[in-house]
Records
---
Amino acid sequence: MESVATVKVSKRGQMSLPASARHRWGLDEGGEVGAIDMGSAVLLVPGGRPAVQRALATAIARGRYERAVADVDDPDLQTE
């Protein structure tokens, strides 16, 4: 898969991940994907909410983590 793909969203909000991403992420039989609404974009992370929390913690420098978490609008993502 190219690093950028177009994905259609149905009227019910459903969408399909490209097959190559499902294979790489181990989602051939289905599974959870976490979504981070970044305002002008949505970032998808395989593994659901726990994976999103780990990705945020890893991506943000330790000294700025608490401040960044405080700025997150979703209270479910504000925990470690």
---
Amino acid sequence: MEYKVHWIIDGVANLEADSPEAAEQAIEETLKELISKQAELVEKLGARAIQGKAYLPGSEEDNDVG
């Protein structure tokens, strides 16, 4: 029997940047590079989207739902 598995990878990266947009862009570039080197993420694991949101430490961390 075939099953579908919906998976989520959650992570928090700390980095220096001039703006939230610059921080998001830096992470996006790193993730795109990793994905391009690991075709299995798309072909076998069905990765379709990656998204993230930059914020200042302490501003949204306490509201983390997990």
---
Amino acid sequence: MSTRKSTETPLPEGGAARARRELVLRLKRVEGQLRGVQRMIESGEDCEPIAQQLSASRKALDKAFYELLACAIEHPEFTMNQKESNDHRIQRMARALARLA
């Protein structure tokens, strides 16, 4: 049994914690897809199926990105500045979406 303390901040129960768990699981699946792409390249597979897998991975990352922003909008307890107004937080998320999408 490890006596090392976790550096992770405990997540509050509820919708936000569930959304974060689902996001982490989605990213782990993307990670697995990318490892599969690496194996395909290393084994010399044809470019078309590799491109298909890369496209699927990219779409999965895009979906994770949008889900992350949706979580930030829905759950203000996970924003950096919890004292900002709801309108300001939503405007900040909209700017992030416009800048990063």
---
Amino acid sequence: MDTIRQNVLEAGDMSGNLTTDPITLNNIEHLAIKADWAGTPTGTLYLECSTDNVDWFELDNVAAAGIADSQLWIDKNAPYRWARVRYVFTAGVGTLNVHAIKKGDK
């Protein structure tokens, strides 16, 4: 079983809405996604999944409440084929970094 680190988004501008590129999970059993943000963004980050890379469903969300912070999502049994992080802007400015650790077969 391989462990794969993937930089998903570097220094994304949080002064508007953001959506990361889809994270491919073919042959992946375990997934961890870490989102770090700096600045004073206010909005909501969503972890979403898809089986077809077309229809997306919310797994979880967290508020960015005007301060720098981070969020770690862990799924020990990722039965879907795609994942992504989406940020919905409300106010403020900041930068967002998203990284994934995948465990499975390359």
